[in-house]
Write a structure and sequence with these properties.
This protein is an alpha/beta fold and about 425 residues long. The protein contains 15 helices and ten strands. About 45% of the residues lie in helices and about 10% in strands. It has an eight-stranded parallel β-barrel, surrounded by eight helices.
Length: about 425
């Protein structure tokens, strides 16, 4: 049996080499390409995860099934020269969440179909999250019911193994998946309100989650499968809202960090680590939070760079386009209020600013829209491979100006766009090595 590259992640900190891994939670092809380029010169594998709302058997908000997402990732790897064997595909928050308006049995049947599709398509890091209630149930379920449903999903995944990847060979089949259990508070994707403090997961709660899941797996005849549970999602005290970020405070999470010693073979997985400082990310990995999830922070960097290039295009080619990229995105956002309206409070003017600049980056949900995609293509084709004058880079892409000035970056639009995303990922790579 092929060993999963993350199977021994709990021991990485004790051996030479990486001590953790970033988890790239994005389906945007430009983001994925930039992340491949950033990780390529390192010893790290590249872990790319799709969420249940983003990618599922019904298409999710990206319109992609797990197989579609897999094929997109491997296609980008082919273009960028990223080795297939260094790719790990994961599924995040896999459970009934997309169908929680349905009765529990119907929602769980959909969730079983989804996780089977993920496993069949070669996704080998699967986060089991059945913590949310469905129709007629409490908003959040108790530990025992959550764990029983998680075991049910693990059984559905195991039933369709082995998965299939384009790069899989008979001599090196796709390894059985590793699993992540637990969930964080507040809900995934960034908080809606301004934040001051967070409730850190207690050591007792962490141990209870593991113990109850272990028992639920055993009751379902999955004792051996539970040995492939490598991580537990906890809240170490990191989060971001629309306007602000709560940074990791090691002293506040000391008891939780120490609790990992009583969970052999497991690491902690930290969600919503977007926008954390380099020092905070390094401290998280040092303290046992070895898997660092990042998504909106990367698409925020994408949006920031595209808007800078949008303004540069107007300086260089004024009036050539009938509508700017930003104006196009505003139209698309207004046509799809479900993606942002319940998350962005305030006056119409405040909502307008949040639609484009919130740290929650809910604009990421509309990049797949054909109008948005066409506007990005038009922008990049207009700027082409031409060198952008350094004063315009300083004015509109200031975060890259020093590297351009030092001669470390070419000044064409695509290079600058990729560099913006790579810069956002760089602290995660540094923290895990």
């Amino acid at each position: 049996m092929t060993t999963h590259p993350l199977a021994d992640i709990a021991t990485w900190a004790e051996t030479p080499g990486p001590s953790g891994i970033p988890s790239v939670c994005s389906a945007h092809p430009i983001v994925l390409e930039a992340c491949m380029r950033a990780v390529l010169p390192t010893p790290l594998p590249l872990l790319i995860e799709a969420t249940c709302n983003q990618v599922n058997q019904d298409g999710g908000y990206t319109g992609m099934t797990p197989q579609d997402f897999r094929d997109q990732v491997f296609g980008i790897a082919n273009r960028t020269g990223f080795p297939h064997e260094r790719l790990i595909l994961g599924g995040d928050h896999l459970g009934p969440n997309p169908w929680k308006a349905l009765p529990p049995d119907a929602a769980m049947q959909k969730a079983e179909t989804m996780i089977a599709a993920y496993a069949r398509a070669g996704f080998t890091k699967l986060h089991l999250d059945c913590s949310m209630g469905c129709a007629g149930e409490p908003v959040a379920l108790g530990d025992h019911q959550t764990a029983a449903r998680a075991a049910r999903l693990a059984a559905a995944a195991e039933a369709v193994l082995p998965g299939v990847l384009p790069s899989a060979l008979p001599s090196a089949p796709v390894p059985p998946p590793v699993y992540i259990i637990g969930t964080e508070v507040p809900v995934p994707g960034g908080a809606m309100e301004a934040l001051d403090t967070l409730e850190i997961t207690s050591p007792a709660a962490a141990r209870t989650t593991v113990d109850i899941h272990r028992a639920a797996f055993a009751q379902a005849g999955l004792t051996a499968v539970f040995n492939r549970v490598i991580g537990l999602v906890v809240q170490p005290g990191v989060e971001f809202g629309n306007h602000n970020v709560i940074d990791y405070t090691p002293t506040a999470a000391r008891a939780l960090s120490a609790a990992r010693a009583k969970l052999p073979g497991m690491v902690f997985e930290a969600h919503s680590t977007d926008y954390q400082t380099p020092a905070a990310l390094t401290a998280l990995v040092r303290d046992g939070f070895a898997i660092l999830k990042v998504g909106p922070g990367l698409t925020f960097a994408l949006r920031e760079a595209l808007y800078g290039l949008d303004l540069i295009a107007e300086e260089l080619h004024p009036g050539v386009r009938p509508i700017s990229l930003r104006a196009t995105l505003e139209q698309v956002l207004l046509d799809h209020p479900a993606h942002w309206q319940s998350y962005y409070e305030g006056t119409p003017e405040e909502q307008r600013l949040l639609r484009h600049f919130s740290l929650s980056d809910r604009i990421r949900y509309v990049w797949p829209d054909p109008r948005a995609d066409a506007a990005v293509t038009t922008l990049l084709e207009m700027l082409g491979a031409d060198a952008i004058p350094e004063p315009l880079i300083s004015q509109y892409l200031g975060q890259l100006s020093a590297r351009v000035r030092a001669g470390h970056l070419a000044t064409d639009a695509n290079t600058l766009l990729q560099a913006s995303i790579e810069t956002a990922l760089a602290p995660y790579i540094a923290a895990t090595q």
